[in-house]
Amino acid sequence: MIFRPAVEGDLDRLLGCVVDEGISWAHPDRLLSFLESGDYRHAWIWIAEENGEILARAVWWGSPDAGKPLALDCLYVHPSVDDPIGLAADLLGHAHAAYDDKPAYHVFVSNGWRDDPTSAAAIAWRRTAAGRAGLTEELERLRYEWTAEAGAPKPSGRLEFRGEDDDELFVAAFRRVAVGTLDHHTREALVTMDPDAQARQDVAGYRSMPGERSWWRLAYTADGELAGVALPSANGGGPVVGYLGVVPEHRGRGYVNDLLGEITRNHAARGVQRIVADTDAGNVPMARAFERAGYRNFAIRLVLSPPPSHT
Ligand SMILES: CC(C)(COP(=O)(O)OP(=O)(O)OC[C@H]1O[C@@H](n2cnc3c(N)ncnc32)[C@H](O)[C@@H]1OP(=O)(O)O)[C@@H](O)C(=O)NCCC(=O)NCCS
Hints:
The protein is built from 9 helices and 12 strands. By secondary structure, the chain is an alpha+beta fold. The mean pLDDT is 96. The site of coenzyme A (COA) has 19 residues, from β10, α8 and α9.
């Protein structure tokens, strides 16, 4: 068995790999358009090959300006392979060694996938293979969408929203909002990082997204106290909620509705037809707020990642 990154000459055979197991995958249209846009690169597609036939294929995604792959997008093994778990784990292991990194695997499935034998089986073998290759942590995120028919809420007038040019104000607000968060990624980062560094990293991450910096807002109460942050944004797929949060001393007053309303209005005012958002299944106050605001849970994102390094 040969394990290697793909080259342009492999394209026809790469397009011939089909995953029909009820989960997201790098189908031919996606493969061609992402290779064109730079979201996929041949060097970030690894194959296991025998006698000129592709027996396994792993496709990583990274934004067009990224210097390294950021997420595993698709894992395929040919149906004739006796040990798909072993082969997929080996393939991931070879690529991880070359990358000197283990990007997380993001798989999209329908709600209720556990009750669907096809999707449940598709996830089961991939989860085991990914785990053998070091992606042992599992997180379930709820995907929400708002469409223009749902309408944007009117402002309650309880909070004043201000744009601020100074990123330092957002760093300070992110730091306060991270205290007591139910968001897994933030909690995990705070185990190993200084809160200021964690806030800076998050602000830099949102800065690097395609959404406009001028959309960012800080929210203040009538007394002039900071209540929270609201960052409408966008990614390669279109408008997203981005980030919002309430400072701990103002939680439990429903301000989350005001912040989410402000983000929804920001996008709606520009004629946006669809806004997408993800939140952890365990972030119940956030999930409830999406549902109150007319966002619909349309899918699940499973994230398999390496354990946090406690260095
Ligand atoms: C999620 C969040 C915005 C909710 O804000 P909020 O305005 O307090 O939400 P609500 O007023 O609707 O709160 C509903 C209930 O959840 C509780 N709650 C809210 N946030 C909580 C938290 N982080 N931990 C524990 N309980 C929380 C509230 O106290 C309230 O309880 P009650 O009904 O017993 O009074 C807020 O927790 C937050 O800023 N978290 C950190 C950032 C975050 O997770 N952002 C979303 C990322 S996708």
